[in-house]
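hey so u asked for the seq, here:
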Amino acid sequence: MAEFFIQGALAILGGSIAPPCIFHYFTGLPCPTCGTTRGIRALIHGDIISALSFNPLVIGGGILLFLYIAAGLIFKLKTGKFPEPQWTKKRIFILRIIIITAVAINWVYLISAGI
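ran it, structure tokens below
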């Protein structure tokens, strides 16, 4: 947990202790999460557009996850219980296809953008 606070403090102050990407080092290609540290740093500085340009899937997904959790907490406060999605086999299959497709599209973007 302390590492996140140190990373946050360094990002605000202009430094970083993020290790280099091993995948990028050996292949010359960005991994699917390359750009996330720079994206979080831009997000901390309030630059949402730059943050999304560094890694749209991870940063955008993080923002959506935050909103989803916030909506769940509001629902809990209003109804007294958390929303419970109905996970059928078909919905799980569709979700897997969406995730795999999103990761592939994001990876193509990262490669073409030279992240």
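The chain has a mean pLDDT of 87. The longest helix spans residues 89-113.
lmk if thats what u needed
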